[in-house]
Amino acid sequence: MPERNVIEGKHKGTKVVSFERTPIMSTYLLAWAVGDFEYVEDFTRRKYNGKSLPVRVYTTKGLVEQGRFALENAQQIVDYFSEIFHIDYPLPKVDLIAVHEFSHGAMENWGLITYRGSKALRNGRKLSKKHRTTAVLYDELKSDQKYKNRVAYVVSHELAHQWFGNLCTMQWWSELWLNEGFATWVGWYAVDHLYPTWDVWGQFVTESMQTAFQLDSLRTSHPIEVPVRNALEVDQIFDHISYLKGTSVIRMLSGHLTVEVFLRGVSDYLKAHRYGNATTDDLWSALSKASGQDVNAFMDPWIRKIGFPVLTVAEEPGQISVRQSRFLTTGDVEPEEDETTWWIPLGLKTGSKATNLKTGALTVKEDTIRGVDENFYKINTDQTGFYRTNLPPARLAKLGEARQKLTVQDKIGLIGDAAALAVSGDGTITGILMFVEGFKNEQSYLVWSQIISSLGTIRSIFADDPEVTKGLRAFTQQLVTQATDKVGWEFATEEDYLTGQLRALLVSTAGLAGHQGVVSEAQRRFSAYISGEDNAIHPSLRSAIFKIAVSEGGQSAYDAVTLDFLNTTSVDGKEIALQALGRVQTEELAANYLRFLFSGRVSVQDVHSGAAALAANAKTRLHLWNYIKNHWTEVREKLGGNMVVLDRFLRLSLSKFASLEIEKEIADFFKDKDNKGYDRSLGVLSDTIKGNAKYKERDLEIVREWLKAHGYLN
């Protein structure tokens, strides 16, 4: 609420601030911020009552101009949400504030929304203005363009909560998804409205949906709606299931009902439960009334049952048969684990022009669909449904040849499905490699992002074998060379956002795969940059060039990036440097980096960024695990003050192994410890590593022979 009045306090130099009375609200949403702040401000007029609404972004001294992009978005998004929910923003003010020590990305405190950053650095006795805040601040001249996307989305997500979560709050934490799943979906929906050229739903499919699939394909996953008994359990379900599977299910449902009908039902739900609590069934009832369909009947398994299905397709002349079963990464579903029958929207497009869309759903375990054109069909158009599709190998190859008929989201879905099915054994590793080989001419950043992510998983799992590692590196380099050479190094003035992101991705991938031309140019620009030419590296290429420099440059490059971390004035510079430093190639530098991460010079909430980079690096991940074992008391003490921080650190540090021996080591190490606050993540880690190990054992020799046969190994 706004300040009501300010009077002098009893003690010299103090004051007493009184605020207006709040509406009825949940206590977890209350916040104060005390400090020497500046702000930028704009006003909007409420749609329904016509009153003026002040919108502000607060920062500490010296950073306020970097809040203007967030302010511009916040003002438009408040107006947009008022319009689509048919409810004015409920409070008399909207404040956003940058917080320099914060374990979460942001928090939707009602009317005073907090956004994540890092603490200021100390230069001698003075606090410098080199603050690090990446969830709400953006510098048009110095920031990587990808942070523009991040700021727009996080601002939108938290503003969505002002209605969905704050005005109407879940009944209990077991229904957290009502808050987070919806805020994530409508957050992206608003960003898509403001920035239609960003293709945010393609971004969602390649990033968020694939991440949700990964966790939900494990035995240790949990239903979207899950029992919660204490505060530490609450922390642990702020995970990819509540957020990203929840969002994926909402996207699937809104696609089925149409967005217009879905939002009408949401508006009715908010109006019926404003200033009160609600349940999942309340939302289903409102949507059922708006749509005339029994939403609860077909959505209940998606919310209250664990996992998701894979749709296995068999072909016959003029028709296909489809069978649903639960998908597990390990590929060994037991009958008692496969009792759920999901409602699956088929989204089948077929015909020579790929315009004939069949919108029926599979509501039984197995069925036959007739009238399918054998020349072309695609199930799960635009990857709207939250399920994998297991196609006959010949069909996957045909779809690869008919790429011009596929949308960006179609391509992403096919690549993601083929890669996941290779892990489980339902598909083959040679199938995914042959499929992506045909994408050398691809121009979409989002499709390339999925290709490189899928290849990265394969390279990580087989990284213990030097010969296969060499072959996969050569495969990656050949795959991206043509596109990398085409996109070049220079950013045009009016270039679109996705082209800039494509350049950064391809330069990074090609350089780290050993493309000598890219490596040489990256080193040239890095050398000029550390010599004082600030403009030698475009902000959006800083991450790629820093990673290549550290990977190729040894101690001197490591020292230079460390110095940049300590002195950068860019709001995203610290995160970029931490990720790049994890590319070190020797145990000695890895040891140096780990000491640095725990030295106090890296904010507690940022330690995981460095650890995740070391874990993704095959040459350093074992050293990281050994450090955790040997320095557990220090790690636990430094990060355990906030269990969210420790949980995230362990999850990101240990998830890349593909060894049953390491899995047993981890289990034995934590066996006798008090693991409350991260016990769920230990189960996820165990499942993940076992699945990786099984994949490696089954397919190592197969991939070796394929790489030799196709000229990637001598």
Automatic annotation (TrEMBL):
Domain called ERAP1-like C-terminal: residue spans: 376-690
Cofactor(s) the record lists: Zn(2+)
Top-level taxon of the source organism: Eukaryota
Keywords on record: Hydrolase, Metal-binding, Metalloprotease, Protease, Zinc
InterPro entries: Aminopeptidase_N-like_N_sf, ERAP1-like_C_dom, M1_APN-typ, Peptidase_M1, Peptidase_M1_aminopeptidases, Peptidase_M1_dom, Peptidase_M4/M1_CTD_sf
CDD domains on file: M1_APN-Q_like
Transmembrane stretches, start-end: none
Residue ranges occupied by any Peptidase M1 membrane alanine aminopeptidase domain in the UniProt entry: 69-302
Pfam families referenced in this protein's UniProt entry, alphabetically: ERAP1_C, Peptidase_M1
Family: Belongs to the peptidase M1 family.
Stated name of the protein: Aminopeptidase
Species, as recorded: Cryomyces antarcticus
